Fold each of these.
Amino acid sequence: MMTTAADYFPMLLRKQAPKFVTESGNPVYGIVAEFDETPKVFKAAAQVRDAGYSKWDVHTPFPIHDMEEAMGIKTTKLPLMAGGAALTGLCIAVVLQWGTTDILYPTVVQGKPFEAWQPFVPIMFELAILCTAFMCIFGMLALNGLPRWHHPLFSHERFYRVGNDRFFISIESSDPNFDPVKTKQLLEKAGGTDITLVEDVK
Amino acid sequence: MLDGVGASISGVDTAMSDMHPDQTIALQASGTASVQPVPRHQPIIPGSHDDGTLVEDPGLRAPLVLGERSFNDVTNTVCGYAEAPMPKIWLTAFTITSSIAAIATGMILYLIITGVGVWGLNNQVDWAWDITNFVFWIGIGHAGTLISAILCLLKQNWRTAVNRAAEAMTIFAVICAGIFPGIHVGRVWFAWFLAPVPNSNGIWPNFRSPLLWDVFAVSTYATVSLLFWYMGMIPDLATLRDRAAIRLHKGVSRGFKMPTPIGDGLALHFMPKPDQIRVLIYGVMSLGWRFSSRHWHRYEKAYLMLAGISTPLVLSVHSIVSFDFATSVIPGWHTTIFPPYFVAGAVFGGFAMVLWLMIPLRMFLPNFSDLLTLRHLENMAKIILLTGTMVGFAYAMEFFIAWYGANEYEFSVFANNRVNPAKAPYWWAYWTMITCNVAFPQLFWFRRFRQSPLVIWIVASAVTVGMWFERFVIIVTSIHRAFLPGEWHMFFPTYVDILTFVGSCGIFMTLFLLFLKFLPTFALSELKIVMPQSHTDDHH
C-alpha cells in the first residue's frame, strides 16, 4: 500500500539519500539486462526471484503466461476494488431513482406507482457496470503508478525495443539485496546480455 | 506440429529479417527500405485458395499469424501503416468520406435552425428514419464488444485479428447512433432534460420510462466501450511512442510534408517532424507504460473484469433499446421476443459490418492477410450464419405468435402492413429484409462460400442493407396505420432524411479511416501472445 502511494504521490515522501551514485554524480536506478527470447527471460525471472530480490521487474512486449508465478507476484486486489465500485454504482442508482421519483419530486406519469422497484432495475444495472468499468481501468492505472511523465528506464536507449521484440529484467538499486557486482553476475549467469547500469538522470 | 504446411511455405523473403533490427527500423524510417516487411506470396499452398489456415483436422491448430513472422515483423506491419506518409488512396478516400460527413453536418444544422418539419415525419409516422438510423448504428456497435468481451471469455484466440478494428468500429457506430436521438427531439437545446441534474423546474427525468433507460444504457455502453478500446491500446501506443523515439534518436526521422494531389508532397521545414508529434501525442496517450510484468498482471486482471462486465452490458443495451418499442402497446411493437431478437440482430449486423470493412483492408494492405487469415473470415462467416438463422427464427416466431396470440390487430400488422404485397404498401421493405437477412447467409452452409472473401463481402453488404430495413420495417410499418383508416399515412423521406443518413455513413467512414491511419489497427501485444514464440517452453 505504501509503495503504491509512493509511486503515485512521490511528492509526499521524504527523499532518501541514494545508496549508489555513479561517477557523474547521478543516483543509480538499477541494473538492466536484455533477453531476446521468451523462454530465456522466463527462466531468468525465476532465478532472480530465487535469489531473494523484491524490487525488480520484468519488461516484456506482451504479458507472458505464468510470469506471476515465475516472479512471485501476489494476486492484485483489483477485483475487490471493482466489486466495491459495483456496489457504489448500485447505491447511487437506488438513491437517485427512489430519491427523485418517490421522495423529492413525485410526479404522476400515466398513473405508474412511485415506489415500484421493477422499473429501476435497468439503471441500477447500468450504473453498477459503469462504476466497475471506471474502477477497473483507473484502479489498474493507480495501482500501477500510472500515468507518469518519465521513468529512469527510458534513459536507457536499448529499452525502447521493449514494445517490439525484446525482454528486459530490471533490478532496482533500492532493493536491500542490490549489489552492483553480485547483481550483475546473477543477471549474466541467468543469460542476460547488454547488462547496463541505469542512472536516475534528473 | 504443422510440418506439412510449414514445409510448403514458399517465397518468404528473409532478407529483411537477416538485417539487424535496429538497422531495419532505421532504413525503413529514412525511406531507404520499404516500411513493410516483404509480403508473403499467396496462396501458401500452391494450386489452392487455402492460405494454410483452413485445416479441417481437429487435431491441428490453424496458425493465427502466417508467414513465419517474427515479433519484429508483426510490429513493423501494424506500426508501419501508422508511420508511413499518408498514401494517395487513403487521402482520396478520406476526401470523399469527409465531404459526405460535411453534408451530414449541414443537414443537422439545417434541421436545428428550421425544425423537425424538414424531415418527412407526419402525425402518424412520428418515428421513421431517425430512429431507424439510431437502432441501425447502435446495432452495428455491438460486434466490437462482443468480439472483445464474449470471445475473450470463451478463450477464442482468433479474435485478436479483429478485436481492435471491431472495437474502433463500435465506438464510431455509437457516435453515429448518438446523433439521431439527440437531434430528433425537436428543440435540441432542451436535450439536457435527459440528464438527471437538479433544475429549477422541479422536474426530474422519468425513471419509469424505457426511453430514459435507453439514455443510461447507451451512454454507459459508449463510455465502457471507449475505456475498453483505449485500455487495450495503451501498450500499442507505447510501442508507437518508442519507435518514434528510436528514430529521433538515430536521426532518421522524415521531415514534415504536406500531402499534395500531384507529386511528392510539399516539404514544410518550419513544422515539427512527424516523429516529434508522435512522441508527444502517443507519449501522452500511452500514460508512461513501460511493459512491466507487475503492470501486465493488473492489466490482464482489469481486462478480464472489463470483459466480464461488458458481456452482460452488451446484452443489456440492445435489450433496453428494444424496450423502447416492446413496452408500448402498439401492435407490432408490443412483443416479448424483442430483447433477444434485437440482440441477435445486433450481433448479426455488427459482424457483417466488421467483415465489410476488413475484407477490402486485406486487399489494400497485403501484409494484413498474415494477421487476418481466411480462417478468421470463415469463423466470422459461421457467426453470421448462426445469428442470421436466429434472426430468421425470430421473424418466424414473431409472425407465429401474432397468429397464435389471436390478437387481430397484431396479426393485421404482419399480414396487411408487412407481408402481403396485395395489401401492404411496404411489402418490398419486408421482403428485402427477409432476402438479405435470412436467404443470403444460408450460402454459408457451403464451405466454398464461407472461404471466399468475395462471397463473404457480398453477403456482408446484403446483411448491412437488410438490417437497416429490419429496423425500418419494425418502426414504420407498425405505426403508419393506426386503428382508424382515417389515421393511415405513408412515410416519404425528404432529401434531408436521406442526406442525414448518408452523411452519418460518411462520419463513420471518416472516423474509421482516421483510425486506420493513426492508431494501431491490430492489438499488437495480443497478437504476440498467440504467436508460437511467446511460449515459455523451449520446444516450439
Amino acid sequence: MASTIRVRAVAGSDNTEVQALVQHPMDSGFIKDAKGDLIPPHYIEVIEFQHAGKAVFTAYWGPAVSKDPYIKFSFKGGKTGDDLNISWVDNKGQSDSLVGKIQ
Amino acid sequence: MRRLIVIRLAAAALLAASATAALAATADDFKAALAKAEAASKAAAALKNQWTTTADALKAAQTAAAAGKFDEAVKDAQRAEALANASIAQAKEQAATWQQAVIH
Amino acid sequence: MTAKHRTAAINGTVFFAIAVAAIGAQAARAANTVDPQADFKAFRAYFTKRFPKVPLSDFVNGPYSMDAGLRKQWIEIDAFPPYQFALDKGKQMFETPFPNGKTYADCFANKGIGIRQNYPLFDTKSGEVITLDVALNQCRQQNGQPPLDYTKDDMAALTAYMAYTSRGKPFDIKIPDDPRARAAYQKGEEYFFSRRGQLNFSCASCHVQSAGQHIRTEVLAPALGLVAALPIYRSEWGGMGTTSRRLTSCNSQVRAVPLKPEDEQYRDVEYYLSYMSNGLPISGPGARP
C-alpha cells in the first residue's frame, strides 16, 4: 500500500530543509457525521524525523492539527544522499514510516 | 376600599386571561397558516429560488406544532410564507433586471 | 402655480421621462440578439483595466493574483501541494480498466489526456451543455458502472488528474452556431448576474463587484479565470471539491437552497464562465484557502 508520507528534503550549505505531507484524517473527535454521531478521535500523536540516528524534529500533534498535515522545518547538517527516517504513531496505535533521501 | 380594588383587579385579570385564551392559536389556525406557507414555498421552488431560511422556518413551524405550541407554530408558518413570497418577488425582479448588471 | 409646485411638477415630469427612457433602454437591450464575442471583449477589458498590474494569464490564480501575502503562502504550499493525494488517486482511477476491460481513455478524444480545456462543451445531439464531470459519468454509464457523486472525492480525484494533464493549455470553449447553444450561454450569463438567496447576492456581487476585496478573511477571486483552477483543494474544506461542490456551497452561503449538482443552470453558468476565460491557461488542480 502506498505510504502516507511524502517528503522532500534538500541539503543546503549548512542546513537541510525538509517538507513533508502526511495523509491522515486527523479527526478531533468533536465533529459529527451526517447522521449526527460523533466521529471518534483519530489523530497522529507523535511524528519524528531522524537523521544519522538522531532525532532532528519531533512533533506532538493531537486533535488540534487538521487533516493531511503539512510540515516544514530545517535542521543543521545533512548532505545529499543521506537517509531521513520519518515515522508517526496515532492514538489508535496505527503507525507508518518512510525512509526518504536527502537531495 | 382595598377589598374593592382587589376584587376589581381580580376581575380584570380574569377578563384578560379569557381574552388571551380566545386569541390563542388552535391546531386549525396552524393548519391554515401552514397551507399558505407551503403553497408559497412550492411556488418559490418552482422558480428555483427557494431560500434556506424559508425551509428552516417551515421546519420550525412543524416542530412547534408537534409540541402543541400553536402560537409559535403559526408565527413560524407566517414567517415562512413571508420569506417564500420575498424569494418569489426576488426571482421575478431579477428576471427583469439582471441585464443591467452585465458587463458591457 | 407657486414656485414650489412648479419645481415639483418639473421634477415629476423629468423623473417620469427618465423612467420611461430607462424602461425603453432595458427593453431594447433584452431584445438584442445574444453576442458572446462582444460580451467576451467587454468582460476581458473590464478586468484588465481594473487590475492593470495583473498579467492576463495570472487571473487564473484567483485570490493569489489579487493579494501578495496570500500569493507568498501559496507558492510555498504549491511546492508540496495539498491536492497531491487526490492527484495520485485520480491517475490510478483513470488508468484502471472497468470490469468490461474498457477504460476512461476510450470515451474521450486523445485518450482523455490534455482535453480538459475543451469542457464544458455544447452537445448538439442532446441540446445540453456537457461538463467534464458529466462526461465522465456518461462514460461510466456506457461501461456499466454506477455514477460518481458529483461533489465528492472520487469525482474530484478523476477531474484533478485530467486537469493536471491539461495544465497550461488555454481554455477553448466553443459556442456552436446553434440557437440552443446561444440560449444556454445566455442562461449561464443570467445565472451569474442574478441575485439570489436571502442575502441577495449574485455571483457577480462577489466576483465582479468585490473582486480582490475581502469577505471576512477570504480574498475574492475575479470572475475572469474563475473556473481555471477547478477542481480545488480547499483548506476550508480540508479536502477536494468539484465545480458542483463550489456552486452548491456558494448557494447555501447566500441562503439559497442549492440546486442538484450538475443541474442545467449550474452547467450553463460553468459554460458561460469558461467561455469568458477562453485563452487563459488551465491551472488546475488548484489549492485555495
Amino acid sequence: MCFFSCLASAQSTSTNEELLITDNPVGHPGGRLVVSLRSEPKTLNPVTSADISSREVIAEMTGDLIHINRLSQNTEPALAKSWKVSRDGLDYTLKLRRGLRFSDGQAVSSGDVLFSFRVYLDEKVNSPQRDLLIVGGKPITVRRLDANTVAFHLAQPYAAAERLFDSVAILPEHLLGQAYRDGKLDQTWETSASPGQIAGLGPFRLKEYVAGQHLTLERNPYYWKTDREKQRLPYLDEITFLFVPNADAEVIRFQSGDTDILNRLGADDYSVLKKDQATHSFRVYDAGPSLEYNFLFFNLNSALPANSDISRKQAWFRQVKFRQAISLAIDRDSMVRLIYREMATPLWSPVTPASAFWVDAAIPHPARSIDQARKLLRDAGFSWSETGELIDSSRSPVKFTILTSASNSQRMKMATIIQQDMKELGIAVEVVPLEFRSVVNRIFQTHDYEAAILGLGAGDVDPNSQMNVWLSSGNDHIWDLGESHPATAWENEIDQLMEKQLTTLKPQARKLLYDRVQEIIAENLPLISLVSPNVLVAAKNELANFKPAALDPHTLWNAPELYLTGPGASGQP
Amino acid sequence: MKISRKAMLLAIALLGLHLIVLFAGFLAPYDTARQNRELPFAPPSHIHFVDAQGKVHFRPFVCMMVDRPDAFGEYLEDCHRSFPVYFLVRGAPYELFGFLKTDLHLFGVDAPAGIFLMGTDAYGRDVFSRFLYGGQLSLFTGLVATVLSLALGMLLGVLAGYYGGWCDAAVMRGAELFLALPWLYFLIAVRAFLPLSLGAKDAFLLLIALIGLVGWARPARLIRGVVLGSRERHYVLAARLFGGSDLYLMRRHILPDIYNILLTQAALLIPQYVLAEVTLSFLGLGVGEPTPSWGSMLSTLQQYSVLVSYWWMFLPGLVLVPVFCGYVLLASELQPGRRAAVA
C-alpha cells in the first residue's frame, strides 16, 4: 500500500475543522480585485459549463478532491487530506477533511462526493466532464466507506489517475439533489440564479451578477484553507469580473486603472506596457513558455472523393520527404521575432518546453535550410521548371492553399511568412483567411481544405491530455479524422505507445514511451510545429503573492493567497 | 451640360491620382511581397542632402537602418556608408499596365540599404510600394464596380420607367429587395462558400462583380424617375406619333436626360465602392496575402500596439479622406442647379 499524506492538519478549536495550512507569505485581509473577462459566462453550473469564461468564474467558486498546483505542475491534497492507492493501481481510497462546510454553512460529507460523481457520470445529464472520468472504456466508480472516506475503482491502472480529480467540483447535494431527481439539473445555477441558491467549496461565492457589465464574487467565510498564522483564506474580500469585449479594450482598461490583472497579453501589447511600467504602478511578467503549440498541417484524410483536386494534391502531401522539406524551409526564428518579439519558442515538436518533465530534449532542431529542403524534394521526385516553379513527376506545378482563421492575427502572420518561404522553394501558396467557424467546419466536417494553420493548447502537461490528438480514432486527429484504424505504420506505432503509456504507472517508463512518440512525430510530421507563445501577463504593483503560471488559469490559480498592499483595489467598475 | 471650373479641377486631380497608381510598377522601388525580416516596422527613411561632415550633396542619399539589439522595432541610422538615391534604375521586374514587361523604376538605392518612403510593415515590406499597388486595387475596384452598377441600374431603370406596368413593378420590388440587403454580411457569406482554390486575381474580379451587382438599385430608381418624366415630354410624344421605335426614342430623347444623373451617381458611388472594398479587406475578407489593398494595409491598425507606435501605417487611411472629399465635391458640382446638398 502506498501512502500519501497532506502537509499538516489544523484543528480549529471551535468547529473541529481539518483545514489545509498553506505556506505562502502571510498577507492581510481586505480589498477588492477587478479582473476582465472577454466574454460573459454562460452558466455557473459546474456540471454543464463548457466555455472558458464560465470555467474561469466557476474555478473560484468550487473545490476539488485533489488539485494540480499550476506552478509546480504536481498534484497536491485539496478536499482530500490523504489517499492510499492499491498495489494494482485500481483502487484509490481518499480521506476527506473533517468538519468542512459549503459556502452557505452546510456540512460537507462523503454523501456530497458520491452525489457529485453520480451527476458527472450520468449519461442523461451529459456533462462535458463525463469523458474525462472514463478509464479503460468504463466510468470510474465510487463508494462510501464512512462519513469521511470514499473509495474509487478504475477498470484499468491509469498513470495519471490523481490528475483526474483536478477541477472536478464537489457539489452540494442539499441544494442540487432535488433538481437532479427532477431531471432539471442542467437548468439550475444559471447566471441569473440568486446567490442563496448556489454554494460551493471554493474561495469565493456569488455576490451579484449584472448582465452585460460585471459579475462579483465575495469571500467565502467557510473556506477550508488558512495561512501559517491561522488567518482563514482568502485574503481578498471580493473579486469582480468585468466584461470587456476584446483584447485591445482589455489593455486600455488595464492601463487606465479599471482592472488589476491582465491575463494573456499579446507580445505587442506587452512591449507597449513594458515601456509604461516605470512611470505607472503596474508590472508586466513573462511567465515562460506556454502549453500552446501552433502548427501547419496537410489534409491527409483518406475519406475524400478520388478524383477531386485535393486528393490529387494529397499525392504530394502524403510523401514524408515533402513534409520534411516544407518544415526545413520555414523560418521559425522570424516568426518568434516578428510575431512575438522574441517572447515565444520555436517548435520542432508539439510538446513545448513548458512540460519540463515530458519534453524530449533529444529531438533535433535543424536550422532552416533551403538547400536541404530542395535536396529532399529532389529525392522525392520533384523538380523545377525553367521559371523556377516546383513541379511533380507529371510536370504539374506544385501549389496549395493554407486555410487559417481571419480573426487570429498571429496565425495569419505565420501563414504570410510561410507563403514567402515557400516561394523560395518554387511553391505558390495562397493564404485563405476565413471566419473561425468556417475553418472549423472545413477541417472537422467537410475536410474541404488543402493545408491549414491551427493552434492547440494542451490543458495539462500530462501526455494523456493529448490522447485525442495522437490516437487514430481521436476527435482531434485533425490531419486524418474518422479513422477507426491507423492509416500508416507510424500512426499504428503511435497508437500502441499512447495506449501503453496510459496504463504504465512508473513515470520514467512512461517518459521513454512518450519520448518515442515525439520522435515519430518529428520524423513523420503529421503536424509541422511552428511556435509556442510565452505566457505574458500584467498586474498592479499593489497585488502581492502574484505568481503567474504556465498552466491555466495563469493569474488566478492561487487566488486565495492574493492580497492587496497599499490603499486597496481599483475604484468602481 | 456645362461643367464648372471647380468640377474640372477636381476631376483632373482625381485623374492624376489614378494615373499615379496606374504607374505603380514604375514609381514603386520594390516588389510588394518582398519581406525584409530584419526591418519590421521601420520608420520612413530620412532623405539626406547634407552629410555628417556638413557637405551638401546635389544627389540625395540614405543611410543604413540598423535595429537596436535590445529594443524590438526601434532603429538607428548608421551613416558610415551613404547610399545615394539613383533615378531610372533597374530593379525587380514587373508588368506595366499588366502586359508591358520591364524592370525600370523611377528611383532606388543599392543593396543592402533600402529606401522606404513610408516605412515598412510587420514583415519589413515597403509600405510606399504596397500603397501604390494597393491603390490600384482599391481605386479601380471602385471604378469597375461603379460601371457595373450603373450599367445594370441604367438598363433596368430605363426599362422600368419607359414601359411601366408589370415591368416597372417587378424592377421596383427587386430594387427594394436589394436595398434592404445587408451587403456586408451577404459578401462575407459568399466569401465563405467560395472554393479555396480561387486565385487572388479571380477573387478580386468576383469581389468587384459582387459589390457592383449588389448596388444597382439606387441608380435604377433615380433613373426610372427621370425616364418617367421625360417619357411624357411633348417632343417624345411627337416623335412616337411620327413612327419612332422604342429604341430610337430611348436613344435619341430619353438617354440625354439621364447623363447628368449617371455622372453624379458615378461620383457618389465610386467612393462608396472603394470603401466597400477597403472594409472587406480590413476585415480580412478581401484579396489575400501578399496582394496589398488599402483596406488590408489599414487592418494592421486594429492592433493597439500598432495604433500607438507606428504612425506611418495610417497613410493609406489619410489618403482616402481627400479622395472621398474630391469625389463628393465633384458630385455636388455636377448636380444641375449646383445645390450644395450632398445626396
Amino acid sequence: MDYRNLMSWAVRPQVVRSVVSAFSVIITVSSCAPVSPPDPQAKLIAKGKEVFFNETFNGNGRTCGTCHPLQNSLTLDPAFIATLPANDPLFVAEFNPDLKKNFENPTLMRQFGLILENLDGFDDLENKFVMRGIPHVLALRTSVNSPQGPRTGWSGDGAPGDESLRSFATGAVIQHFTKTLNRIPGVDFRLPTDEELDALEAFQLSLGRQQDLALPLALKGTVPKRGQAIFLDNGLGKCNLCHVNAGATANFGGGNIGNANFNTGVENLPDQPADLTGERNPPDDGLGTPGDGTFNTPPLVEAADTGRFFHNNAIETIEGAVAFYDGEAFNNSPSGRALAAADPNKVGIELDGTQIVAIAAFLRVINALENIRESIAQLEASLEKRGAEAKELLDRAVSETGDSIRVLEGGGLHPEAVARLQEAKRLTKKANRSIFFRRKLTREAIEEQQRARAFLVETS
Amino acid sequence: MKLKRVMGVVATGVWLWSGMLSAHGQKATEMFIPIGQSPGLSNTISIIGTIEAIDPRIQTITITGPTGSWTAMITGRTKIWLDKSKLRLPNQKGSFSDLQKGLLAEVKYEDPEGRGRAKGPVDWIKVQLTGPGEKAGEMRQ
C-alpha cells in the first residue's frame, strides 16, 4: 500500500471537512436530548443570569458576579480571592487611580473578604464607611420578605427605591461599579433598565432553595442529630426562634414574623480580625441612619460553606459562629438580654463545647444535604441540555459536590458519605470530558449523590 | 407554656422596636439616582412635578404635576438632594433654600400612603438643576 498517496488523500480539505462533519453529527446525536423551548420565566431568568455575570453597566469593569461568583457559592472568601489574577475587577482600587482612595481597602479585602460600603451617606468618604462581608445570594425567595417590607443586605436596607430585591442592583451599581467617586449616572456608570432589574430579580430568586426545610429531619449521624435537637430546643440552643427551620425567619411563639433584624452584639466582639490589622475599620451601626445596631437574619442552611461569618466577617468557622452565641458579646446584647429575660433561669444562651460542635455538625449536614440536592438538580438538568449549557451545569455540579465534601470533612463527619461524594465528583468530571458517555456517567453520578444522601438522612 | 408566652412578648417587643426604626432605613445611593429613575418608586410611590409654591414659615412646598397638586412638609429628617445629572456633574446634598419655584422635583413621603393623602412629612426630595454653574436658587426666577 502506498501510504504517501493515502496520506495526501486524507489531508485534502474537502476530506477533512467531511470527516469533521461526520464527527459533528455523531457528537450531536450522542448528546442529543429532546429540548423543549424555554418558557417566558425561564427566558427571563436566563437573561438575568447573563446580566448578572456579564454586564458591567459601563462602569469600572465589575459585574454582579465579581463579588458573587458562581464557582464559589455566590460569595467571596480570602481563599477564593487569593486565586484571582491581579487585574481582576474586584481589585479595581489597586489599579484604577480614580478609585485608589476611599473606594475599597485592599488589605481588608484580601485578608478577610471585606468590601467597603457607604451606608450612612457619601458626604464624608474618608470617615463614613463600613467594612462588610459579601452575603451569598442563595435561597433569597425564603429570606427577603418581612412585614416591614423587603430586607436586603446585611442590615436589611441595602436597596434604594422601593428597597426591594429588584431595586438592589441599582444601589450596587452606584456603590460598587463606578469609575470615579463622583458617581455620575451616564458618566461613571449607567443605571440598570427596568427590563434588566426584572431579569436580575428573577435570576436571583431562582438561585438555591425555593422553600424552607421542615425540621426535624431524620438524621442518621449521632452528633448532628443531637445538634438538631439542641437547635430546636427553645430552652437550650434557642436557635430556632430566630432561624425557623434553619432559615432566615423568626417565630417567638405567635406565628412566623418573616425575616427580621436583631442587635446580637456582633459589633462588640473583642479582637475582631479586621481591627487587629490596624487598618481603619469604623463601627457599623446597622440598619438606618443613624443606625439602630440591628442586622438582618441570614439563612443557616447555606451557612457552613459560605463563611466567613456575620456582617463583618469576624469569625472564620461555623463552630466559631455557633460559639459566638455562648459568649458575652451576644448575651449582653439586646437580643441576648431579651432571651435571658424570658428564660426561667434568666439565662440567655449557655452551651458547652460539645453542644456547640453538635449544632455546627447539624448545620454542616444540612448544608451538605442542600449541596447534594443542588448537585442532583444540576446533573438532571444537564441531561436535558447539550454543548456549553450541559458543560456549565456539570461544572456547577462539580463545584457543589466539592462544597459538600469540604463541609463534611471539615467537621469530621460521615466519611462514608464523603467517599460517595468523591466518586460522584469524579464521575461528573469524567462526564464533562466524555463525548459518547456523558449521559451514562451523569446518571451514575446522580446515583452516587443519592447514596451519599442516604448516609446522612433516612430516605423514604 | 408560660415560658413560651413570656419569650414571645419580650422578643416580639425587641423585633417591633427594630421594625419601627426600619421605616426610616437609609438608602444612601438614592441621592445619585436622577429624578424619575428611582426603581419601584418613581411615578408610583413618589411624586414628580414642578415646585409651584414655597412657604418657608411652615417649611412646606407645593408641587404640581400632570395629575394634580401636592403639599410636602420638609422636616429635620428630610433629605434634600440636588440632581445635577443633566449637567453631568455629581449630585449633592441641598437645603430648604435650594427648593425654588419652577424647579422639577421628585418627592417621596415618609408615609407610603403620602401620595394619596397629598400632604405630610417628606422622606426625601430631589430637585433637578439644568443650568451650568448655577445654584438651585438662581434658576428660573
